[in-house]
Protein backbone atom coordinates (compact mmCIF):
# COMPACT_ATOMS: atom_id res chain seq x y z
CA UNK A 1 0.00 0.00 0.00
CA UNK A 2 1.23 3.50 -0.85
CA UNK A 3 1.07 6.29 1.73
CA UNK A 4 1.53 10.03 1.39
CA UNK A 5 2.82 12.42 4.05
CA UNK A 6 3.08 16.19 4.39
CA UNK A 7 5.68 18.14 6.41
CA UNK A 8 4.37 21.36 7.98
CA UNK A 9 7.90 22.16 9.18
CA UNK A 10 11.30 21.07 7.89
CA UNK A 11 11.89 17.54 9.21
CA UNK A 12 15.39 16.07 9.34
CA UNK A 13 16.10 13.85 6.34
CA UNK A 14 17.47 11.12 8.58
CA UNK A 15 13.93 10.79 9.91
CA UNK A 16 12.16 10.89 6.58
CA UNK A 17 14.42 8.11 5.34
CA UNK A 18 12.97 5.91 8.10
CA UNK A 19 9.62 5.96 6.28
CA UNK A 20 11.24 4.04 3.44
CA UNK A 21 9.57 2.62 0.37
CA UNK A 22 5.84 3.02 0.05
CA UNK A 23 5.89 6.57 1.44
CA UNK A 24 5.79 9.68 -0.75
CA UNK A 25 5.99 13.29 0.35
CA UNK A 26 3.22 15.58 -0.90
CA UNK A 27 2.65 19.34 -0.82
CA UNK A 28 -1.11 18.77 -0.99
CA UNK A 29 -2.06 18.42 2.65
CA UNK A 30 -5.56 17.21 1.76
CA UNK A 31 -4.23 13.99 0.21
CA UNK A 32 -1.82 13.21 3.05
CA UNK A 33 -2.29 10.10 5.17
CA UNK A 34 0.01 11.62 7.78
CA UNK A 35 1.39 15.01 8.77
CA UNK A 36 4.78 15.56 10.37
CA UNK A 37 5.09 18.77 12.37
CA UNK A 38 7.37 20.53 14.81
CA UNK A 39 6.13 23.95 16.00
CA UNK A 40 3.60 25.01 13.35
CA UNK A 41 0.17 25.77 14.83
CA UNK A 42 -2.57 23.42 13.63
CA UNK A 43 -5.47 24.81 15.68
CA UNK A 44 -7.09 26.65 12.78
CA UNK A 45 -6.64 23.85 10.26
CA UNK A 46 -9.42 21.76 8.75
CA UNK A 47 -8.44 18.12 8.33
CA UNK A 48 -9.36 15.94 5.39
CA UNK A 49 -11.03 12.56 5.94
CA UNK A 50 -7.90 10.99 4.46
CA UNK A 51 -5.71 12.13 7.36
CA UNK A 52 -4.96 9.27 9.74
CA UNK A 53 -2.08 10.45 11.90
CA UNK A 54 -0.05 13.45 13.02
CA UNK A 55 3.54 12.97 14.19
CA UNK A 56 4.93 15.74 16.39
CA UNK A 57 8.74 15.75 16.21
CA UNK A 58 9.09 16.83 19.83
CA UNK A 59 7.39 16.34 23.18
CA UNK A 60 5.06 19.33 23.52
CA UNK A 61 1.74 19.17 21.65
CA UNK A 62 0.10 22.49 22.55
CA UNK A 63 0.23 23.44 18.85
CA UNK A 64 -2.14 20.56 17.96
CA UNK A 65 -5.92 20.39 18.65
CA UNK A 66 -5.89 17.03 20.42
CA UNK A 67 -9.61 16.73 21.17
CA UNK A 68 -10.59 17.70 17.65
CA UNK A 69 -8.18 15.11 16.26
CA UNK A 70 -9.53 12.41 18.57
CA UNK A 71 -13.10 13.18 17.50
CA UNK A 72 -12.11 12.91 13.84
CA UNK A 73 -10.21 9.65 14.35
CA UNK A 74 -6.76 11.15 13.87
CA UNK A 75 -4.06 9.67 16.10
CA UNK A 76 -1.53 12.22 17.39
CA UNK A 77 1.96 11.02 18.29
CA UNK A 78 4.81 12.79 20.05
CA UNK A 79 8.41 11.81 20.72
CA UNK A 80 9.03 11.78 24.49
CA UNK A 81 12.66 11.45 25.45
CA UNK A 82 14.04 11.93 21.94
CA UNK A 83 15.35 15.39 22.79
CA UNK A 84 15.96 14.72 26.48
CA UNK A 85 19.76 14.75 26.36
CA UNK A 86 19.86 18.06 24.50
CA UNK A 87 17.62 19.69 27.10
CA UNK A 88 19.55 18.07 29.96
CA UNK A 89 22.81 19.56 28.74
CA UNK A 90 21.32 23.06 28.55
CA UNK A 91 19.87 22.66 32.07
CA UNK A 92 23.37 21.85 33.30
CA UNK A 93 24.63 24.99 31.56
CA UNK A 94 21.81 26.84 33.32
CA UNK A 95 23.03 25.52 36.67
CA UNK A 96 26.46 27.04 36.09
CA UNK A 97 25.00 30.31 34.79
CA UNK A 98 22.87 30.46 37.91
CA UNK A 99 25.80 29.80 40.23
CA UNK A 100 28.25 32.25 38.64
CA UNK A 101 27.53 35.52 36.88
CA UNK A 102 29.22 34.44 33.66
CA UNK A 103 26.74 36.44 31.56
CA UNK A 104 27.40 39.63 33.53
CA UNK A 105 31.14 39.14 33.21
CA UNK A 106 30.91 38.65 29.45
CA UNK A 107 28.78 41.78 29.10
CA UNK A 108 31.35 43.74 31.14
CA UNK A 109 34.11 42.65 28.79
CA UNK A 110 32.08 43.73 25.76
CA UNK A 111 31.30 47.10 27.34
CA UNK A 112 35.01 47.69 28.06
CA UNK A 113 36.40 46.40 24.77
CA UNK A 114 38.21 49.70 24.04
CA UNK A 115 40.12 49.68 27.34
CA UNK A 116 43.80 49.19 26.52
CA UNK A 117 44.39 47.94 30.04
CA UNK A 118 41.38 45.63 30.09
CA UNK A 119 43.33 42.76 31.65
CA UNK A 120 44.21 44.86 34.71
CA UNK A 121 40.75 46.43 34.81
CA UNK A 122 39.19 42.98 34.73
CA UNK A 123 41.12 41.94 37.82
CA UNK A 124 39.51 44.82 39.72
CA UNK A 125 36.04 44.36 38.21
CA UNK A 126 35.69 40.61 38.47
CA UNK A 127 34.65 40.58 42.12
CA UNK A 128 31.28 41.97 41.00
CA UNK A 129 30.69 38.75 39.08
CA UNK A 130 31.92 36.28 41.67
CA UNK A 131 29.69 33.33 42.36
CA UNK A 132 29.66 30.00 44.11
CA UNK A 133 30.37 26.39 43.21
CA UNK A 134 27.56 23.89 42.77
CA UNK A 135 29.39 20.97 44.38
CA UNK A 136 27.80 20.15 47.72
CA UNK A 137 24.75 22.31 47.07
CA UNK A 138 21.21 20.95 47.13
CA UNK A 139 19.34 20.61 43.85
CA UNK A 140 15.62 19.95 43.75
CA UNK A 141 14.25 18.32 40.58
CA UNK A 142 10.47 18.66 40.25
CA UNK A 143 9.26 16.12 37.68
CA UNK A 144 11.19 12.93 37.01
CA UNK A 145 10.30 12.21 33.41
CA UNK A 146 12.88 11.54 30.71
CA UNK A 147 14.58 14.93 31.14
CA UNK A 148 14.25 15.23 34.92
CA UNK A 149 15.88 11.82 35.48
CA UNK A 150 18.83 12.72 33.26
CA UNK A 151 19.29 16.08 35.03
CA UNK A 152 19.08 14.49 38.49
CA UNK A 153 21.57 11.74 37.66
CA UNK A 154 24.03 14.18 36.07
CA UNK A 155 23.84 16.50 39.07
CA UNK A 156 24.74 13.61 41.38
CA UNK A 157 27.91 13.08 39.32
CA UNK A 158 28.68 16.80 39.68
CA UNK A 159 28.71 16.37 43.44
CA UNK A 160 25.34 17.90 44.23
CA UNK A 161 22.93 16.64 46.85
CA UNK A 162 19.84 15.90 44.74
CA UNK A 163 16.21 15.77 45.82
CA UNK A 164 13.59 14.43 43.40
CA UNK A 165 9.84 14.90 43.48
CA UNK A 166 7.34 13.19 41.19
CA UNK A 167 4.21 11.44 42.53
CA UNK A 168 3.55 10.02 39.06
CA UNK A 169 7.00 8.70 38.17
CA UNK A 170 6.88 5.76 35.78
CA UNK A 171 8.41 2.40 36.62
CA UNK A 172 10.90 2.77 33.75
CA UNK A 173 12.09 6.19 34.94
CA UNK A 174 12.27 4.98 38.53
CA UNK A 175 14.61 2.19 37.41
CA UNK A 176 16.88 4.73 35.70
CA UNK A 177 17.05 7.07 38.69
CA UNK A 178 20.29 7.06 40.69
CA UNK A 179 20.05 5.47 44.14
CA UNK A 180 21.76 8.57 45.56
CA UNK A 181 18.77 10.82 44.85
CA UNK A 182 16.65 11.66 47.88
CA UNK A 183 12.92 11.11 47.46
CA UNK A 184 10.87 14.19 48.40
CA UNK A 185 7.37 13.11 49.41
CA UNK A 186 5.93 16.60 49.03
CA UNK A 187 7.06 19.40 46.73
CA UNK A 188 7.25 21.80 49.69
CA UNK A 189 10.28 19.86 50.90
CA UNK A 190 12.14 20.89 47.78
CA UNK A 191 11.03 24.52 48.10
CA UNK A 192 12.32 24.69 51.67
CA UNK A 193 15.53 22.65 51.42
CA UNK A 194 17.12 23.28 48.04
CA UNK A 195 19.62 25.90 46.86
CA UNK A 196 18.74 25.23 43.22
CA UNK A 197 15.33 24.19 41.90
CA UNK A 198 14.61 22.98 38.38
CA UNK A 199 11.12 22.17 37.13
CA UNK A 200 10.36 19.48 34.52
CA UNK A 201 6.60 18.94 34.43
CA UNK A 202 3.99 19.39 31.66
CA UNK A 203 1.78 22.46 31.51
CA UNK A 204 -1.48 21.25 33.04
CA UNK A 205 -4.28 23.02 34.88
CA UNK A 206 -2.71 22.15 38.25
CA UNK A 207 0.89 22.98 37.27
CA UNK A 208 0.44 26.36 35.60
CA UNK A 209 1.82 29.03 37.91
CA UNK A 210 3.05 26.42 40.40
CA UNK A 211 6.15 28.51 41.04
CA UNK A 212 4.23 31.47 42.42
CA UNK A 213 4.31 33.75 45.46
CA UNK A 214 3.54 31.00 47.96
CA UNK A 215 6.17 28.64 46.55
CA UNK A 216 8.85 31.35 46.37
CA UNK A 217 8.10 32.47 49.93
CA UNK A 218 9.00 28.96 51.15
CA UNK A 219 12.34 28.94 49.33
CA UNK A 220 15.74 29.73 50.77
CA UNK A 221 17.04 33.29 50.45
CA UNK A 222 19.27 33.40 47.37
CA UNK A 223 17.67 30.41 45.66
CA UNK A 224 18.31 29.80 41.96
CA UNK A 225 15.27 28.70 39.94
CA UNK A 226 15.57 27.05 36.52
CA UNK A 227 12.73 26.59 34.05
CA UNK A 228 13.44 24.64 30.88
CA UNK A 229 10.00 23.05 30.70
CA UNK A 230 7.18 25.58 30.02
CA UNK A 231 7.02 29.32 30.61
CA UNK A 232 3.56 29.15 32.22
CA UNK A 233 4.82 26.99 35.09
CA UNK A 234 6.31 30.11 36.66
CA UNK A 235 4.20 33.10 37.68
CA UNK A 236 6.15 35.94 36.03
CA UNK A 237 4.94 38.65 38.43
CA UNK A 238 5.90 36.57 41.46
CA UNK A 239 9.30 35.72 39.99
CA UNK A 240 10.05 39.36 39.15
CA UNK A 241 9.13 40.32 42.71
CA UNK A 242 11.42 37.57 44.03
CA UNK A 243 14.32 38.75 41.86
CA UNK A 244 13.87 42.39 42.79
CA UNK A 245 13.78 41.62 46.52
CA UNK A 246 16.82 39.33 46.32
CA UNK A 247 14.84 36.34 47.58
CA UNK A 248 15.66 34.71 44.23
CA UNK A 249 19.33 35.09 43.34
CA UNK A 250 18.83 34.18 39.71
CA UNK A 251 16.09 32.89 37.42
CA UNK A 252 17.37 30.92 34.43
CA UNK A 253 14.70 30.25 31.81
CA UNK A 254 14.55 28.97 28.27
CA UNK A 255 11.49 31.09 27.51
CA UNK A 256 11.73 34.70 26.40
CA UNK A 257 8.56 36.50 27.47
CA UNK A 258 8.05 40.30 27.47
CA UNK A 259 7.75 40.41 31.25
CA UNK A 260 11.06 38.73 32.07
CA UNK A 261 13.53 39.52 29.29
CA UNK A 262 14.94 42.73 30.80
CA UNK A 263 14.71 41.91 34.50
CA UNK A 264 17.97 42.06 36.45
CA UNK A 265 19.31 38.61 37.43
CA UNK A 266 17.06 36.84 34.96
CA UNK A 267 19.08 34.79 32.48
CA UNK A 268 16.79 34.37 29.49
CA UNK A 269 17.65 31.88 26.74
CA UNK A 270 15.71 31.85 23.41
CA UNK A 271 14.21 28.33 23.69
CA UNK A 272 17.37 26.43 22.81
CA UNK A 273 16.69 23.34 24.93
CA UNK A 274 16.08 20.90 22.09
CA UNK A 275 17.85 22.95 19.42
CA UNK A 276 20.67 20.57 18.68
CA UNK A 277 21.28 18.67 15.47
CA UNK A 278 21.19 15.43 17.43
CA UNK A 279 17.87 16.19 19.12
CA UNK A 280 16.21 17.19 15.86
CA UNK A 281 17.45 14.00 14.23
CA UNK A 282 16.28 11.84 17.14
CA UNK A 283 12.82 13.44 17.14
CA UNK A 284 12.46 13.07 13.39
CA UNK A 285 13.48 9.40 13.44
CA UNK A 286 11.15 8.58 16.33
CA UNK A 287 8.17 10.39 14.78
CA UNK A 288 8.72 8.67 11.44
CA UNK A 289 8.97 5.23 13.08
CA UNK A 290 5.71 5.82 14.96
CA UNK A 291 3.89 6.97 11.82
CA UNK A 292 5.18 4.06 9.75
CA UNK A 293 4.27 1.43 12.35
CA UNK A 294 0.78 2.89 12.68
CA UNK A 295 0.06 3.12 8.96
CA UNK A 296 1.58 -0.26 8.07
CA UNK A 297 0.62 -2.29 11.15
CA UNK A 298 -1.98 -0.24 13.00
CA UNK A 299 0.15 -0.12 16.15
CA UNK A 300 -0.02 2.94 18.39
CA UNK A 301 2.99 3.97 20.47
CA UNK A 302 3.42 7.35 22.20
CA UNK A 303 0.02 8.71 21.26
CA UNK A 304 -1.28 11.67 23.26
CA UNK A 305 -4.97 11.29 22.38
CA UNK A 306 -5.53 7.54 21.92
CA UNK A 307 -4.33 4.52 23.95
CA UNK A 308 -1.09 2.77 23.14
CA UNK A 309 -1.83 -0.58 21.48
CA UNK A 310 0.54 -3.07 19.84
CA UNK A 311 -0.19 -6.33 17.99
CA UNK A 312 3.21 -6.57 16.35
CA UNK A 313 3.90 -6.89 12.64
CA UNK A 314 0.75 -7.54 10.62
CA UNK A 315 0.65 -11.01 9.06
CA UNK A 316 -3.08 -11.25 8.33
CA UNK A 317 -5.75 -8.80 7.26
CA UNK A 318 -5.98 -6.30 10.12
CA UNK A 319 -9.00 -4.15 10.97
CA UNK A 320 -8.39 -1.13 13.19
CA UNK A 321 -11.20 0.86 14.78
CA UNK A 322 -10.87 4.17 16.62
CA UNK A 323 -13.95 4.73 18.74
CA UNK A 324 -15.47 6.19 21.89
CA UNK A 325 -14.95 4.24 25.09
CA UNK A 326 -18.55 3.12 25.66
CA UNK A 327 -20.34 -0.13 26.49
CA UNK A 328 -20.86 -3.02 24.04
CA UNK A 329 -18.58 -1.74 21.29
CA UNK A 330 -16.68 -5.03 21.02
CA UNK A 331 -19.92 -7.01 20.92
CA UNK A 332 -21.21 -4.91 18.03
CA UNK A 333 -17.96 -5.26 16.07
CA UNK A 334 -17.80 -9.03 16.48
CA UNK A 335 -21.48 -9.42 15.61
CA UNK A 336 -20.94 -7.64 12.30
CA UNK A 337 -17.95 -9.83 11.43
CA UNK A 338 -19.77 -13.01 12.49
CA UNK A 339 -22.70 -12.13 10.25
CA UNK A 340 -20.26 -11.88 7.31
CA UNK A 341 -18.60 -15.22 8.23
CA UNK A 342 -15.30 -13.49 9.02
CA UNK A 343 -13.24 -15.39 11.58
CA UNK A 344 -11.29 -13.35 14.15
CA UNK A 345 -7.83 -14.84 14.64
CA UNK A 346 -6.66 -12.31 17.21
CA UNK A 347 -7.98 -9.18 18.87
CA UNK A 348 -6.95 -6.44 21.30
CA UNK A 349 -8.81 -3.50 22.79
CA UNK A 350 -7.39 -0.63 24.82
CA UNK A 351 -8.99 2.50 26.25
CA UNK A 352 -7.80 5.92 27.36
CA UNK A 353 -10.33 8.22 28.93
CA UNK A 354 -13.17 8.88 26.50
CA UNK A 355 -11.54 7.06 23.59
CA UNK A 356 -10.61 3.47 22.76
CA UNK A 357 -8.90 1.47 20.04
CA UNK A 358 -9.69 -2.02 18.77
CA UNK A 359 -7.48 -4.13 16.50
CA UNK A 360 -8.69 -7.38 14.92
CA UNK A 361 -6.70 -9.80 12.80
CA UNK A 362 -9.02 -11.79 10.53
CA UNK A 363 -8.63 -14.79 8.23
CA UNK A 364 -10.38 -13.46 5.15
CA UNK A 365 -10.96 -10.46 2.92
CA UNK A 366 -12.93 -7.56 4.37
CA UNK A 367 -15.36 -6.02 1.90
CA UNK A 368 -16.21 -2.33 1.74
CA UNK A 369 -19.72 -3.13 2.91
CA UNK A 370 -18.31 -4.53 6.16
CA UNK A 371 -16.31 -1.35 6.72
CA UNK A 372 -19.44 0.70 6.11
CA UNK A 373 -21.36 -1.32 8.71
CA UNK A 374 -18.60 -0.87 11.26
CA UNK A 375 -18.53 2.87 10.58
CA UNK A 376 -22.27 3.08 11.28
CA UNK A 377 -21.83 1.86 14.87
CA UNK A 378 -22.50 4.80 17.16
CA UNK A 379 -19.26 6.06 18.67
CA UNK A 380 -16.96 4.83 15.88
CA UNK A 381 -14.60 7.54 14.65
CA UNK A 382 -12.54 5.79 11.97
CA UNK A 383 -12.24 2.28 10.53
CA UNK A 384 -9.25 1.10 8.56
CA UNK A 385 -8.41 -2.21 6.87
CA UNK A 386 -4.73 -2.98 6.40
CA UNK A 387 -4.13 -5.80 3.96
Features:
five-stranded parallel beta sheet; 387 residues; seven-stranded parallel beta sheet; alpha/beta
Question: What does the model show?
Answer:
This protein is of the alpha/beta class and 387 residues long. Helix content is 33%, strand content 21%. It is built from 13 helices and 16 strands. It has a seven-stranded parallel beta sheet with strand order 8-7-6-9-10-11-12, sandwiched between helices. The protein has a five-stranded parallel beta sheet with strand order 2-1-3-4-5. Strands 14-15-13-16 form a four-stranded antiparallel beta sheet, with helices on both faces. Strand 1 (3-7), helix 1 and strand 2 form a beta-alpha-beta unit. Helix 3 (84-99) crosses helix 6 (146-157). The radius of gyration is 25 Å and the shape is elongated. The N and C termini lie close together (8 Å). The mean pLDDT is 97.
- N-to-C SSE string, H for helix and E for strand: EHEEEHEHHHEHEHEHEHEHEEHEHEEHE
| Cα-based radius of gyration, to the nearest Å | 25 Å
Percent helix, as a range, is: 25-40%
Number of helices: 13
Topology:
Elements: E1 3-7, H1 13-16, E2 23-25, E3 34-37, E4 53-56, H2 66-71, E5 75-77, H3 84-99, H4 102-111, H5 118-125, E6 138-142, H6 146-157, E7 161-165, H7 171-176, E8 182-183, H8 187-193, E9 196-199, H9 213-218, E10 223-227, H10 236-245, E11 248-253, E12 266-268, H11 277-297, E13 317-324, H12 329-339, E14 344-352, E15 355-362, H13 368-376, E16 380-386
Parallel strand pairs: 1-2, 1-3, 3-4, 4-5, 6-7, 6-9, 7-8, 9-10, 10-11, 11-12
Antiparallel strand pairs: 13-15, 13-16, 14-15
